[in-house]
Amino acid sequence: MDYSLLVWLLPTIALVVGVIIGFFVARALPNAVPNGTQRQLDDVQERFDTYQNEVITHFNSTANLVQKLSQSYHDVQEHLAEGANRLATDDITRQRLLAALHPDALHPHRDRLTPPRTAAEPPKDYAPKSPDSPGMLDEHYGLKK
Length: 145
Hints:
Organism: Pseudomonas graminis
Radius of gyration: 44 Å
Keywords: Cell cycle, Cell division, Cell inner membrane, Cell membrane, Cell shape, Membrane, Transmembrane, Transmembrane helix
Distance between the termini: 113 Å
Order of helices and strands: HH
Helix content: 55-70%
GO biological process, one term: regulation of cell shape
Shape: flat
Number of strands: 0
Structural class: mainly alpha
Subcellular location: Cell inner membrane
Region (Disordered): 101-145
Largest sheet: none
Number of helices: 2
């Protein structure tokens, strides 16, 4: 009887100890993996936020540069118009210089894209037939007599 108690007691104690060790190991390991995943997620989020800030900065500086460019273009146009008014010797030359500076003044109603001048007939989705031949929907179409 003493031997049979030992045969049952040792595996039971080993099972309980194994469950306890497995419980603690299972509690310790999953905490390590989500922390690594959370760290990776935080790194990706930080990189994304940095990228978004860089894009916003890029487009803001581009808008400022385009605004400066358009202001410079306007200033150059004014300078050339002032020079044409001041330096042209006669009225005809002055008008030609101003027309060259402002080509829209000659044709204010002209569009960049003009529609085609000819009214072309749209393509047909059937073959034309001669007046004396039967059409494709005729019951005698394709039959030889």
